[in-house]
Amino acid sequence: MSVTEKTPFDEAEWQAQERALRDPSARDIDPRDVSYRRVANALRSSPRSEPPADFAADVAKRVARHEAGIEPLLSRILLAAFVVISAILLAIYGSAAWQALGQGMAGGGSGWVLAGAGCVALSWIASRGLGWVVGAGGRTRVA
């Protein structure tokens, strides 16, 4: 069972707030209206802001600058380093790696290799499906 407590309603306070909002330049000021009048004047004088006219273009420029930053360059450098190091390791340990792989497959490791390949395939299919669903919803494709 839910019990909610209600704040007691003070009619005099409510009327003081309403008077301050309705007539900011009244001469006969009740002492409790003074603070409400200050709040009402502050609310009236606050600037009403809207996004600038070129807000969307500015955001697009910022995103383009971020995408053109150092991250893509570092990603390419790391990929190139990975390829070079992999080629070096393959040249040094290639025959031993093939022998170990063959022994692992003969010892029942092929089931684990198939399970890993299945996980990779399901992940790829799920990401493509999500990209298609998001794209069909009217948004930009993310995949």
Task: Give a structural overview.
- Helix 1 (11-22) packs across helix 2 (33-45).
- The chain has helices at residues 11-22, 33-45, 55-67, 70-136.
- It folds into 2 domains: 11-45; 55-136, no CATH class.
- The protein starts with 10 loop residues before the first helix and ends in a 7-residue tail after the last helix.
- 73% of the residues lie in helices and 0% in strands.
- By secondary structure, the protein is an all-alpha fold.
- The chain has 4 helices and no strands.
- Residues 19-33 have a biased composition (Basic and acidic residues).
- Keywords: Membrane, Transmembrane, Transmembrane helix.
- Residues 1-33 are annotated as: Disordered.
Strand share of the residues? Answer: under 5%
How many domains? 2
- The number of helical segments is 4
The rounded distance between the terminal residues' Cα atoms is 48 Å
Strand tally: 0
Q: What is the average of the pLDDT values? A: 79
Poorly predicted runs are none
Largest sheet: none
Percent of residues in helices: over 70%
* Element order: H for helix, E for strand: HHHH
Radius of gyration: 34 Å
Structural class: mainly alpha
The shape, in one word, is elongated
Keywords: Membrane, Transmembrane, Transmembrane helix
Region (Disordered): 1-33
Biased composition (Basic and acidic residues): 19-33
Transmembrane segments: 77-100, 112-134
Q: SSE layout and pairings?
A:
Blueprint lengths: L10 H12 L10 H13 L9 H13 L2 H67 L7
Helix pairs in contact: 1-2
